[in-house]
Specification:
By secondary structure, this protein is mainly alpha-helical. The protein has two domains: 369 residues, no CATH class; 238 residues, SGNH hydrolase (Rossmann fold, 3-Layer(aba) Sandwich), CATH 3.40.50.1110. It contains 28 helices and eight strands. The protein has a six-stranded parallel sheet, with helices on both faces. β4, α23 and β5 form a beta-alpha-beta unit. α1 crosses α13, α3 runs antiparallel to α15 and α9 runs parallel beside α11. The longest helix has 30 residues.
Length: 624
C-alpha cells in the first residue's frame, strides 16, 4: 500500500529546510519567528512518514531485518551526533566550570544513550534555562530513537498477525498519545514537551499518512497543500513559547505538515516553492544544521548580542558553514553501505560509542584539572547553586516557573500570610522579584513580606501570555488585593522591565493609589552578556580584573534612564542601576569576593542583600 510513494520527493527536503531554519531563527531570537520551536514537530511528522514507508514495504515483501533497520538508524544519526558532541565538549572545556563540564558530560552521555529528553526533563526548563545546556536540542533525537526501538517491532507483529488492522491500530495509538499530551500539557508542561508518550502521536501522524496513502482529488489536494503551507508559516510566525505547548496548539504544525506531504504534488506553486534548489540544499544539510547550531548559539551568546542583525548574520553563517562540512565529510561518507554485515557494523558502532563515552567523561576530568589552578574561580562558580537558588527564591510555592506551571502550586497559606504585629509588604513580579525575597525577609525583619512571583510574568493588570502567570496576576489584582487592601501596607513590584513598560507602570501606580496602597517600583537590574561568575573566573585566567565591564549590556542602562526620568513614577522608583553602578557604567561585580549575580541578570544572595542595604533608608521611608 505504501509502494506508490517510495520515489524521491524534493518538496520533503523543502519542508526540512523550513523546519530547521525556523528552529535556527527561533534560537537566535529573530523577532518574527516566535514559534520556530514548532520546526521540531515538522521533523517528527516527516520522520514518521518516511521511516514507516520503509518498514512497511520491507515487512510486506518479507525482506525486513531488525539488524539492517538499526544499522541504517546508526548510520543516519550516529556519526554527525558523535562528532558534534565530541567537538563541542572540547570547545567548552575551558569555558565551563568543572561542575558545568560534569553536567555537560552527563548531557552528552544521555544523548548518546538516546535518553536526553528524560535527563533534561529532570534538570532543565527548555523555555527558560536552555542556553546553559548546549546539548538540550538532542531531546528530540531521543524521542525519535525511543519511538523506533518499539515501532518496528509493532509493525512487524501487526504484519505477521493482523495485517488488516494496521491502520486501525496506529489510529488508536495516535488517539491515546494525543489525549495524553493534551492532559499532560495542562498538568506538567515540561513532561508533555520532553517525554515520549506525549510526543509519539506526531510521528504516528506521519505513519498513518503512509499507511492510509490517501489519494487527494487534484482540486482539493491543491487547496489542502496551500492551506498546509500557510499553516506551517503561521506556526512559525504566530506561536510563541508562552503558549501551552504542545497541547492543542501542536496540531497546527503537525496537521499542516501532513497536508503538505499528502497533497503537495497537486499544487505546482507549493511543490515548486518547496523544491527550489536553495530549500532543497538546506533540506539536505538540515540534520547537521540542527545538530551544530545550538552549541554555537550558546557559546556565541556569551560574547555577542545574538539578537542583533550582525550577530544573527554572523552566527547563521557560521552554523551553515559548519553544517555543510558535517554533511559533506561526516554524514555522507557514513551513509554509504560497507562490505561489513549489519551485525559486524553494529558491533563496531557500539565500540565507537563506548570510546566516545570515555572521551566525553575525560573532558570533564580535564576541566577539573584546569580550574583547580584557580581556587577563587571555583568560588565564583559555586555561587550558581540551583538548589540553593530555588530555595531562596521559594520556587514551587511562592514562585511559579515553567516547572511549577500551575497556580495550584502557589501556597497561599505560606506566601500571603498576613501579620497582625508587623506591617505587611507584598512583593510581586517575575524572577527579578523572587531574587529579592531572601534579602527582604532577612534584612528588613521589622516587616512581614508576602510574595507572589512567576517567571516571565510582569506584575501588571494586563493580558499575560502564560496561563499560570495570568492566573496568578488575575487572582492577586482582582481577588486577593481587593479583599485585603486594608491589610496590605505597601506593594513592591520588580521585573525585567522594558522601555515600553513606562506607561503601564504609571497605570499600575494609579491603580494602587485608588486603593490607598503605597507602591514601590524596583527598576531593571544591570545585565551581562555572559554569566557573571564565568566572566569573573576568566578575568582571573587572563589577569583582567575589570573584564566584567566589557560584558555589560548597554540597553539596561537606557531602559533605566527612560523609566526613572518619567515624571509619573517619581517618588515610587528605585534605580538598581544607580545602586550597583552609580553614575558610571562600571558596575560593582563582587562583594566580599562573592559575585553580585549568579547568572547574567539575577542577583545572588549577597548581591540582593547589598542592594537592600544600599537602599535601606529609602525603603524605610517609603514603607513607613
Amino acid at each position: 500500500m505504501a509502494k506508490n510513494i517510495l520515489s524521491y520527493r524534493p518538496e520533503i527536503d523543502g519542508l526540512r529546510a523550513l523546519a530547521v531554519i525556523s528552529v535556527l531563527f527561533y534560537h537566535l531570537n529573530v523577532k518574527f519567528i516566535g514559534g520556530g520551536f514548532a520546526g521540531v514537530d515538522v521533523f517528527f511528522v516527516i520522520s514518521g512518514f518516511l521511516i514507516t514507508r520503509i518498514i512497511i514495504n520491507e515487512v510486506d515483501d518479507g525482506s525486513f531485518s531488525f539488524l539492517r533497520f538499526y544499522e541504517r538508524r546508526v548510520r543516519r544519526i550516529g556519526p554527525a551526533l558523535l562528532t558534534t558532541l565530541l567537538v563541542s565538549s572540547i570547545v567548552y572545556l575551558g569555558w565551563f566550570s568543572a561542575n558545568e563540564n560534569i553536567n555537560f558530560a552527563r548531557q552528552n552521555l544521555s544523548a548518546l544513550l538516546s535518553v536526553s529528553n528524560i535527563y533534561f526533563y529532570k534538570t532543565i526548563d527548555y523555555f527558560n534555562d536552555s542556553r546553559e545546556a548546549p546539548s538540550i536540542h538532542t531531546w528530540s533525537l531521543s524521542v525519535e530513537e525511543q519511538f523506533y526501538v518499539l515501532f518496528p517491532v509493532l509493525i512487524f507483529a501487526i504484519g505477521r498477525y493482523v495485517p488488516r488492522r494496521r491502520l486501525a491500530i496506529l489510529v488508536a495509538l495516535f488517539g491515546l498519545s494525543l489525549t495524553y499530551s493534551l492532559y499532560q500539557t495542562n498538568v506538567d508542561r515540561l513532561g508533555a514537551f520532553y517525554l515520549p508518550i506525549g510526543r509519539w502521536w506526531e510521528l504516528l501522524a506521519g505513519a498513518i499518512l503512509t499507511c492510509a496513502a490517501p489519494k487527494c482529488p487534484p482540486k482539493l489536494g491543491s487547496w489542502l497543500s496551500a492551506f498546509g503551507l500557510i499553516g506551517l508559516l503561521c506556526s512559525f510566525l504566530l506561536l510563541n513559547d508562552r503558549m501551552p505547548f504542545p497541547g492543542w496548539i501542536a496540531l497546527l504544525p503537525v496537521l499542516s505538515t501532513v497536508a503538505v506531504l499528502a497533497c503537495a504534488p497537486h499544487n505546482k506553486y507549493v511543490s515548486g516553492f518547496l523544491s527550489t534548489p536553495v530549500l532543497r540544499w538546506f533540506g539536505l544539510i538540515s540534520y547537521s544544521l540542527y545538530l551544530v547550531h545550538w552549541p554555537i548559539v550558546c557559546l556565541a551568546g556569551n560574547f555577542i548580542q545574538t539578537n542583533g542583525n550582525r550577530g544573527i548574520l554572523l552566527i547563521s553563517t557560521l552554523c551553515i558553514g559548519l553544517a555543510w562540512l558535517s554533511y559533506r565529510f561526516v554524514e555522507t561518507p557514513f551513509r554509504r553501505p560497507s562490505a561489513l554485515g549489519s551485525r559486524a557494523f553494529l558491533v563496531r558502532a557500539a565500540g565507537v560509542y563506548c570510546f566516545a563515552a570515555a572521551a566525553l567523561t575525560g573532558t570533564a576530568a580535564l576541566s577539573a584539572v584546569f580550574w583547580n589552578q584557580y581556587p577563587m574561580a571555583n568560588r565564583y562558580f559555586a555561587s550558581d547553586d540551583k538548589d540553593l537558588r530555588d530555595s531562596t527564591m521559594r520556587a514551587g510555592s511562592c514562585f511559579l516557573t515553567s516547572r511549577y506551571s500551575n497556580i495550584d502550586y502557589f501556597d497561599q497559606s505560606k506566601c500571603l500570610a498576613l501579620s497582625k504585629d508587623r506591617k505587611n509588604i507584598l512583593l510581586m513580579g517575575d524572577s527579578h522579584s523572587a531574587h529579592f525575597i531572601h534579602a527582604f525577609t532577612h534584612e528588613l525583619t521589622e516587616y512581614n513580606f508576602l510574595q507572589a512571583s512567576a517567571s516571565s510574568c510582569k506584575p501588571l493588570p494586563i493580558a499575560q501570555k502564560k496561563s499560570y502567570c495570568s492566573d496568578l496576576v488575575d487572582y492577586m489584582y482582582h481577588s486577593w488585593l481587593e479583599k485585603n487592601s486594608g491589610s496590605v501596607d505597601a506593594v513592591i513590584i520588580s521585573a525585567r522591565w522594558e522601555e515600553s513598560d513606562g506607561p503601564l507602570l504609571e497605570n499600575a501606580k494609579a491603580w494602587f493609589k485608588q486603593r490607598s496602597i503605597p507602591l514601590l517600583i524596583l527598576g531593571p537590574s544591570p545585565e551581562y552578556v555572559a554569566p557573571l561568575p564565568r566572566i569573573l573566573a576568566w578575568g582571573l585566567v587572563f589577569a583582567k580584573p575589570d573584564l566584567d565591564h566589557s560584558f555589560l549590556k548597554s540597553d539596561r542602562f537606557l531602559i533605566d534612564k527612560t523609566l526613572k526620568s518619567g515624571g509619573g513614577l517619581a517618588g515610587s522608583y528605585i534605580s538598581l542601576v544607580d545602586s550597583l553602578c552609580g553614575t558610571t557604567r562600571s558596575c560593582r561585580s563582587t562583594i566580599d569576593q562573592e559575585p553580585m549575580f549568579f547568572d547574567r541578570d539575577h542577583l545572588s544572595i549577597e548581591g540582593s542583600k547589598y542592594v537592600v542595604d544600599m537602599n535601606r533608608n529609602v525603603l524605610t521611608l517609603l514603607l513607613r
